[in-house]
Amino acid sequence: MKKILVLMVAALFLSAAPAWALTVNAGATDVGGYDKLKFTATQGSPELPSAGDADELAWVRDVLNDQTITLAAKYTQMNWLLTNEPGVYAIDLQTNPEYFLVKIGGGAGSTGYTHFLYENLESLNWGVVALAELGLSTTNITALSHVDEFNGTQVPEPISMLLLGFGLVGLAGVKRFRK
Ligand SMILES: [Ca+2]
Fold this sequence. Notes:
Blueprint: H1 2-15, E1 22-24, E2 29-32, E3 36-41, H2 53-64, E4 70-75, E5 81-82, E6 88-92, E7 99-104, E8 115-119, E9 126-130, E10 144-151, H3 158-178
The protein binds calcium ion (CA).
């Protein structure tokens, strides 16, 4: 009986999620790791005159140096879920974007910034943000005002370009052989 108990405890430890995995829904949903904060700005500054869609898009295109970036989704009704780490929240993203922007209320955060642009890393369908990084206390989730999702134009995957290259070379070879 004791042996079985030991085995059961061992199995429980082995099946437990690794310490670095962030989860929501009491451990049931893996949201991947932290997303990467890339750029910040303050609403009303020369580079970001307002929090309107056009100004936000212009700022994102500017800092990412990519004019093909488009606004894929924007929402103010947000369902942020607390992860297993205090003060770290996750949101189910709608478009698996390359980048997402988190806007907080002016004056809410200690950093003075209102706009935080993140590069979306694995998992791509979850945005994972630490409130401390936004200059907020670990419980002040209501300070978040909206989320924007941004995408660039799809870059062809290297492997498909390689296959295309092989195809063209092969085609040239066939043509030469036929001559
Ligand atoms: Ca993510």
